[in-house]
Amino acid sequence: MRPVIRVYLYDENGERFFGEGPLRLLHAVEETGSLRSAAQSMEMAYTKALHLLRRAEKVLGFAFTRRTIGGRGGGGSVLTDEAKEFMQRYESYRDECVHADKERFARYFADEK
């Protein structure tokens, strides 16, 4: 037996807007330099990926990416400094939640196998 903790962020209306999915998408954008390529790497429709990011951007009040239009060199996306900082804070918060839960689980279920 083991616990599973999932950390989601919700807006003031109680609607989820950020979690592991959007985080993975942002990491993929950072790796690929493109939202379209990032979505493809996750087997996600581009429109869904765009919707996820726009929704979170609206709630948070800042852009996650800077987009460039295609052309000779092709378009692409890069993460903003705000996005990188937010991702780092989310990951630190998530990791602390998971660690705290492991401690509590051990306290309450130490005898379980």
Automatic annotation (TrEMBL):
It comes from Agathobaculum hominis. This is LysR family transcriptional regulator. Residues 23-83 form the HTH lysR-type domain. SUPFAM superfamilies: Winged helix' DNA-binding domain (SSF46785). InterPro entries: LysR_HTH_N, Molybdate_resp_trans_reg, WH-like_DNA-bd_sf, WH_DNA-bd_sf. Gene3D superfamilies: Winged helix-like DNA-binding domain superfamily/Winged helix DNA-binding domain (1.10.10.10). It comes from the Bacteria. The lineage of its organism: Bacteria, Bacillati, Bacillota, Clostridia, Eubacteriales.
